[in-house]
Design goal:
heterodimer; A: 604 residues; mainly alpha; Cytochrome C Oxidase, Chain A; 3 domains; two-stranded antiparallel sheet; B: 361 residues; five-stranded mixed sheet; 43% helix; 16% strand; binds protoporphyrin IX containing FE; binds copper (II) ion
């Protein structure tokens, strides 16, 4: 029996007991769309917030790129918008540091961690494992709202007198450990807000992560064994595992940092001399902070890339009409990455002054972590080989992901070699590496996901023409921005200007080229946003009873087009087969919930 | 005004694009979706091929254009080794990059649905997967082992030629470098970091009672001797900085409260490097600002590479490498800081009123 209220279908199915209580009261608008516990709404909230953050973060980069390209020119409009931060139309050096700091923080944490995992783990885990919702809808809602408050706190720091944090997204002490605006304006209140926002953000991540793991482990529908899970779900769950183990280290790191700042402890400080006055800090070590930070910081890059890998695996398989090549190898390599990602953190610290013997150990593991990554790459190539590729927006972005991941990944192997890293550390070469392998690649994964699951969100397709324009500009533009940086393999990063050095003035024309490319790419992203909202209202509708626009096997596409609270109207689907039965037995695809035919052998 | 205008133009452009996009979507529904997506796949297949070629051409062109603009050959002994590792590694990685990209975009073209109607069910192949696990693993372990040898060579104390070594002390603060030489006695005066010794006039906390400090001097440029090993002792007063000598492939953080050190051997004098560069076409270009060829104004420099605040980008110092003779001449001209600045302020015995000593910089 079904009751229909406000377009939401509530079911009597009590497969999972904690949903029963929804049946009996009508939800107010606020409960349904704002403080919703429905995984689909929470996913949308993360997506929209993430998109807003992405625009802010990208805009910041356009601002500092303007400074890098035309260090001698003035732009009156900058003063109009930024006021005292750009007096005379020129961004100040203090504000430049604030811009790069907030750019990194926002994109790494708020867009590519919160936004990416929050959107797709929430949307896909319950749908793809055949569950009505997350294990705890309430905790899920909390996770979003902590994220939201963290966002607000971080954003508020733009509007205070001394400006936002300005010591880099890595927030090393003592620069960020001394609460003294004479050292850096951003080390004042701005940094406290940064720290508070990060603490809230970490809470959000932990709440979300707990949910993703327990949901995946406990709420799988009948027949859905672990090795019948789509790779997306594997990647989201393993991402959450990394987060659960790594984020507490950052929490501790930031807490001790605030103790130093506010209470005068000396966890990270020792023998500090400011203007000839010896401060009272004694016995701490700045390097301790770096260990804590990178114990999260390195796994963090995998927190960002794993969901993108999962999405790309799924998208590539669906649109190649071919099973993902080496499903088990993919799961194994994901798991291996989880383990090794905790053993490489100090490759960010080869020249930090830590013991060189440590460097050697971390170097070995750093190079080894490239093995699972290369397995995955070859398996993606194996998947598209002899496929029947449908080259639409999601697929092109997935292919673009593989390209970016390779180009950025190979330089990781160079950087991972400690002796080489002496020269390359903190140069534009590193910027090229991590923007390609993580920044652009993860965005490509996210775009692939949005284009691919947009019909699941809104029952409509995104516009293909705009999608293609978006894709080609972003692919070409992304390379135009970051590829040239490989040549700047001695140019220090986080420099406001290079005019003081004879040595670093060799790439002026390249700097301009990069900035122009960045502006074009930024505009293309606005086109994506336009497409997104346009398609919500005007996009081509998905036809048919169930929403299965791409001919996919996975469970999210067995649910009706209209979005239900509880996902499926009647009973939950039962799973009989692995998620990648494409082009098999003369069929284009066989959904996971279709029983095996008599005599058919289960895959693997 | 221009901002307003370009915004308007941009918005118009977006509106037009959306209209076109909407129209093409309507047409797609009319034409039948299947035909249309196949056509789109074909188009993107060709575009992928075009991209592959265009990308490689762009990469080749930029290599031709910009590889000559890289830093010249290493001016230090260990730098030759790290450069070799870098070059070998980059060539190998470049090969991987080329091959995988050919596969990726060629497959996208070759197997798009307009060329290949039916996909081939091929879920796995253990032999293949073993191959592409074991080969990368072996290559990476080999890289780790060779890289480790170089890494230990650089930091291994036992391999150092300490007899003939010159020691230099560099202390960083916002936003300058303080370079201290030990003078003729080849020994630094002791530093004591406590409130008694550290003061605005004596930021380093040098103990002037230690006679070894009496011939120490501060230099506004770093002078090094060709083929003479240097041990740079690094420190920082306020925040993290990083000591970067790009031409010597030297980089190490300066950490407040934690001494660090880097050992290297400069192998080319500034003059020799200039002579070498004068034969390189890229360095023969005339710099319009100075009217000189680039190699003529070439110099070695010290930079800071750990973000340290607003003027992080301004922590520059010149580095000069000379022959021993020229170095000796230069050193003889340097005045001991103690004799010229500290001693004149002394009253009576060797009690030193540190607050009367003039600020260093
Ligand atoms: C193929 C394996 C990889 C290796 C061996 C590797 C190695 C390294 C090393 C040694 C650094 C430090 C460079 C330096 O600061 O001097 C680095 C930086 C970085 N890598 Fe990777 N990397 C790999 C893959 C990745 C992946 C997959 C991601 C992200 C998805 C990533 C993201 C980053 C980021 C964000 C930084 C810069 C952090 C910062 O300093 O701000 N790397 N990588
Ligand atoms: Cu890392
Ligand atoms: Cu500095």
């Amino acid at each position: 029996m079904q009751t229909v209220a406000h377009g939401d279908v509530h079911t009597q199915d009590t497969h999972h007991g904690d949903h029963g209580h929804h049946d009996h009261h009508e939800q107010s608008w606020l409960e349904k769309y704002v403080f919703s516990t429905d995984h689909k709404i929470v996913a949308k909230q993360f997506l929209i917030t993430g998109m807003m953050w992405a625009i802010v973060g990208a805009l910041l980069s356009v601002l500092f790129r303007i400074q890098l390209a035309w260090p001698d020119e003035t732009f009156p409009f900058l003063e109009t918008f930024l006021g005292k931060w750009a007096e005379g139309g020129k961004i100040s050096n203090e504000f430049y540091n604030a811009l790069i700091t907030m750019h990194g923080t926002i994109l790494i944490f708020f867009v590519l961690t919160g936004g990416l995992s929050g959107t797709f783990a929430n949307l896909l885990i319950p749908y793809q494992i055949g569950s009505r919702d997350m294990a705890s809808g309430f905790i899920n809602m909390l996770s979003y709202w902590f994220f939201f408050i963290a966002s607000m706190v971080m954003f508020s720091s733009f509007f205070i007198q001394t400006g936002p944090a300005a010591g880099g997204w890595t927030a090393y002490p003592p620069l960020n450990g001394l609460r003294d605006t004479a050292i850096s304006k951003g080390s004042g209140l701005g940094f406290d807000l940064w720290a508070l926002a990060m603490v809230l953000f970490i809470i959000s991540s932990l709440l979300g992560g707990l949910n993703y793991i327990s949901t995946t482990l406990n709420l799988r529908t009948k027949g859905m064994t672990m090795f019948k899970l789509p790779l997306t779900v594997w990647s989201f769950m393993l991402t959450a595992v990394i987060g659960l183990l790594a984020f507490p280290a950052l929490l501790a790191g930031v807490a001790l940092l605030e103790f130093d700042r506010l209470l005068g402890t000396s966890f990270y400080l020792n023998d500090i001399i400011i203007n000839g006055n010896l401060l009272d800090y004694k016995g701490g070590s700045p390097i301790l902070y770096q260990h804590l930070f990178w114990f999260l910081g390195h796994p963090e890059v995998y927190i960002i890339i794993l969901p993108a890998m999962g999405i790309v695996s799924e998208v590539i398989s669906v649109h190649s009409r071919k099973p993902i090549f080496g499903y088990r190898a993919m799961v194994m390599s994901l798991s291996t990455i989880v383990v090794i990602s905790f053993l490489v953190w100090a490759h960010h610290m080869f020249v930090s002054g830590m013991n060189p013997n440590l460097g050697a150990v971390f170097m070995l593991f750093s190079l080894l972590i490239a093995v699972p990554s290369s397995i995955k790459t070859f398996n993606w190539l194996g998947t598209i080989w002899r496929g029947s590729l449908r080259l639409n927006s999601p697929m092109m972005f997935a292919i673009g992901f593989v390209s970016m991941f390779i180009t950025g990944g190979v330089t990781g192997i160079i950087l991972g070699s400690a002796a080489i890293d002496i020269q390359l550390h903190d140069t534009y070469f590193v910027i090229a590496h991590f923007h390609l392998v993580m920044g652009v690649a993860a965005f490509f994964g996210m775009f692939a996901g949005v284009y691919h699951w947009f019909p699941r969100f809104y029952g409509r397709y995104m516009n293909e023409t705009l999608g293609m324009i978006h894709f080609w500009i972003t692919l070409i533009g992304g390379y135009a921005i970051f590829f040239p940086m490989h040549f700047m393999n001695d140019i220090p990063r986080r420099y406001y200007s290079f005019a003081n050095f004879e040595t670093f003035n060799r790439f002026e024309d390249m700097m301009v080229f990069i900035t122009v490319s960045a502006i074009i790419v930024f505009l293309a992203q606005l086109l994506f946003v336009v497409n997104f909202f346009y398609s919500i209202f005007k996009g081509r509708k998905v036809e048919g009873e169930v929403c299965n626009p791409w001919g996919s096997t996975t469970l999210e596409w067995t649910a009706p087009v209209e979005r239900l609270h509880g996902n499926w109207p009647g009973e939950l689907p039962t799973v009989y087969r692995w998620p990648y039965d494409y082009s098999v037995n003369g069929r284009d695809f066989i959904p996971q919930n279709e029983p095996l035919k008599p005599g058919e052998v289960e895959h693997q | 005004m221009t901002i307003l205008l370009s915004t308007v133009i941009l918005v118009l452009l977006f509106v037009v694009l959306v209209y076109v996009a909407h129209a093409s979507e309507l047409a797609m529904v009319l034409n039948g979706e299947d035909k249309d997506t196949t056509k789109a796949s074909r188009r993107n297949g060709y575009a992928s091929l075009l991209f592959l070629i265009g990308f490689f051409v762009a990469v080749a062109w930029s290599c031709k254009e910009y590889l000559p603009a890289l830093l010249p050959k290493s001016a230090s002994l260990h730098g030759v080794e790290t450069d070799r590792l870098y070059n070998e590694g980059m060539i190998l990685m470049f090969l991987v990059f080329i091959l995988t990209h050919i596969a990726l975009f060629w497959f996208a073209y070759r197997y798009n649905e307009s060329n290949n109607k039916v996909a081939y069910f091929y879920p796995h192949n253990n032999k293949l997967e073993a191959i592409w696990t074991i080969i990368p693993a072996l290559v990476l372990v080999a890289m780790a082992v060779t890289g480790m040898r170089v890494w230990f060579d650089i930091f291994d104390v036992s391999k150092r030629d300490t007899k003939n070594m010159m020691v230099l002390e560099v202390t960083a603060k916002q936003f300058q470098w303080t370079v201290r030489y030990s003078g003729k006695d080849n020994a630094f005066g002791e530093r004591i970091i406590d409130k008694e010794h550290v003061s605005p006039e004596n930021e380093l906390g040098i103990n002037w009672k230690d006679a070894k400090s009496h011939d120490d001097f501060f230099a506004d440029k770093i002078y090094l001797v060709k083929n003479k090993p240097v041990l740079v002792k690094l420190g920082a007063q306020d925040v993290l900085h990083s000591f970067f000598l790009p031409h010597f492939r030297v980089k190490l953080d300066c950490v407040p409260g934690l001494p660090t050190q880097f050992y290297f051997v400069p192998t080319l004098t500034t003059k020799e490097m200039q002579e070498y560069l004068s034969t390189q076409p890229w360095w023969q270009q005339v710099n319009p600002e100075t009217g000189k060829q680039k190699w003529e104004t070439f110099k070695y420099e010290l930079a800071c590479t750990e973000i340290c605040g607003r003027s992080h980008y301004g922590m520059q110092k010149d580095v000069v490498v000379v022959e021993q003779k020229e170095y000796d001449e230069w050193m003889n001209k340097q005045d001991s800081y103690y004799k010229t600045v500290v001693q004149p302020t002394l009253v009576g015995n060797n009690n030193i009123p540190a607050d009367k000593v003039q600020a260093l910089n």
